[in-house]
Write a structure and sequence with these properties.
Distance between the termini: 85 Å
Order of helices and strands: H
Radius of gyration: 24 Å
Strand content: under 5%
Helix content: 40-55%
Number of helices: 1
Structural class: mainly alpha
Oligomer: single chain
Amino acid sequence: MLRVVLWFIAVGLSIVPLWILRSAGKKASSLDFRIMQNDSTLLEEDGIVINQMTGLPTGTIVTENANVMVMPAQHPQENGTTPEK
């Protein structure tokens, strides 16, 4: 009886690391696809660190070591500036 209980414990303890590895592998394999789809949820997801953004709109100013904030584009008339010529 003790031998059966020990086998169940061994199998149970083996399943947990395998599940963790499978979960991490699935997340890593979907990362490239999500980047190609421009998934904006990557900016706020835990466990993902954004070091550099290369696909930025024209006129974007990159500030090193700044918090990333996604804001809607403002029209020149809304913020009191005049368009450049």
